[in-house]
Every structure is written in C-alpha cells, then in structure tokens.
C-alpha cells in the first residue's frame, strides 16, 4: 500500500494519505492546490468497518478503485464528479476477515490487481469492461494474512506484493497470468513483516515498509535478489512500526507512514 501527502484538514500542514506520488500529482490539480479536503458519502449499503484498504487510479478510465477488505465490492470513485459506486464490481463475498489489501494498476494490460491478504486469489479488475476475476490467479491458501500492498514495476512488466506473513514476495506476470512465490522466497513465516511497497524508477528497485521486521526489504526486479541488510537496524522493540510507503520523485526519497513508530521513515534509495 503506497502513501504520499495531502493537506491536513484545517491547516496547511501535510498528512499521510493512501495515494501514490503520481496520483497525488493528479489530485493536486483538483483540490490540493487550495489546501482543501472533503468527504464523499458512501452508498447506504456500505455501512460497517474495515471495508476497503488501498486505492489507485486507472488512467484509462480516469477512475479510482479501492480494494475490498471486508466489503463485498470494489469501491469505484469518480474524482471529477465525486460519485462513488459500490455495486458495479460486486458479488465478491462478505467477510469477517480481510480479503485483499492494496491495489495497483498495470498499464501493459489495462488491469488492476489486488493483493490477497486472506483471499485465495489475486483480484483482477478490468476497468474498461467493469468485470472482476478471482479465478485466473487462484490457488493460494485461505486466510493467513499473506500479502499487504502491491505495486507495478514497469521496467520488467511485473507486479510485486509485500510479504506480511507469507515467506515470499508475490510476483505476478499480468501478460502470461502467472504467479510466482518461489523466486523471491526464504523471508520467514513471521507475521507483519512488511506492509506496503513502492517502486523507485531511478534505481530500478522496490522497497517494502517494515512492520515488525527490523529492515526495509529491498527487491531488485532485474536480478531477483532481496536485501534485508542494507537498510536494517530499525527494530527498537516497536511492533507494527510503519505501514505504506511511497516515492517522492521531486526529492528522490521514499516516505513510510508511521503506524506505531514516532516518526516518518525517510529512505534515500541512492545513498542507502
């Protein structure tokens, strides 16, 4: 799940929000330049808690899509009209446990992919045809808090999901419809390891925000190597430290949002 910045209600300061840096640039032309925030009411049938986690923009249709956590539908938001839709991409099952966490757009195939947290399949959304698919990329264990956050790496045309409890990074080839949990494995079964993942094009690396793990997870998509030593020493006895991470190209730095940590985690991917 990627994070960037927006105006904090009632001030000119900044606060964390679940948008990528690119999406924030897009949104800034609408409201952020005026330092405004507003809320869009949800349809009556969407009451409850833990409904959606993660949101991304699909430029092909100029709509935002949020991944259903407990909700039975993908949430679709029209950023220009403020209309929200929780019925078109529905019938995904009500759940008392989380299904998907994080969603990313793959430009090469014009599809969106949500990372399976408790679900047995990657959720694939076709934003043009308004269809969902939970059969093509199926076969994962039920439950288990597997992956949390997903991002597309255009340099290799693959998607990567951050391992929460899973032993491996989930790699998805959206062209061949193949998933891979072996290549970037061996990361251990512990829970809440990393939550959120971001891609840095200038160094062609991916970075996962540390939850309970003491290091940022670095992934080289070209060589298929993971690194948990370069950016380590972040334990400090705090659990669920950061959640969500985004790259800010204007300053060439990554920022991870503090969940229980006392500070924003800032990562310089060039100097490590």
Descriptive key words:
272 residues; mainly beta; four-stranded antiparallel sheet
List the helices and strands and how they pair.
Layout: E1 4-7, E2 14-17, H1 21-28, E3 52-58, E4 63-68, E5 75-77, E6 84-85, E7 100-106, E8 111-116, E9 123-126, E10 131-133, E11 147-153, E12 158-163, E13 170-173, E14 178-180, E15 194-200, E16 205-210, E17 217-220, E18 225-227, E19 242-248, E20 253-258, E21 265-267
Antiparallel strand pairs: 1-2, 3-4, 4-5, 5-6, 7-8, 8-9, 9-10, 11-12, 12-13, 13-14, 15-16, 16-17, 17-18, 19-20, 20-21
Radius of gyration: 17 Å
Strand order of the largest sheet: 3-4-5-6
Order of helices and strands: EEHEEEEEEEEEEEEEEEEEEE
Q: Segments where pLDDT lies below 50 for 5+ residues?
A: 1-32
Let me know the average pLDDT.
Answer: 87
Structural class: mainly beta
Shape: globular
Distance between the termini: 21 Å
Which oligomeric state applies?
single chain
Helix-residue proportion:
under 10%
Sheet having the most strands:
4 strands, antiparallel
As a percent range, the share of strand residues is 35-45%
Helix count equals 1
Task: Write a structural description.
By secondary structure, this protein is mainly β. Helix content is 3%, strand content 38%. It contains one helix and 21 strands. The protein has one helix at residues 21-28, and strands spanning 4-7, 14-17, 52-58, 63-68, 75-77, 84-85, 100-106, 111-116, 123-126, 131-133, 147-153, 158-163, 170-173, 178-180, 194-200, 205-210, 217-220, 225-227, 242-248, 253-258, 265-267. The longest helix has 8 residues, at 21-28. It is globular. It starts with a strand and ends in a 5-residue tail after the last strand.
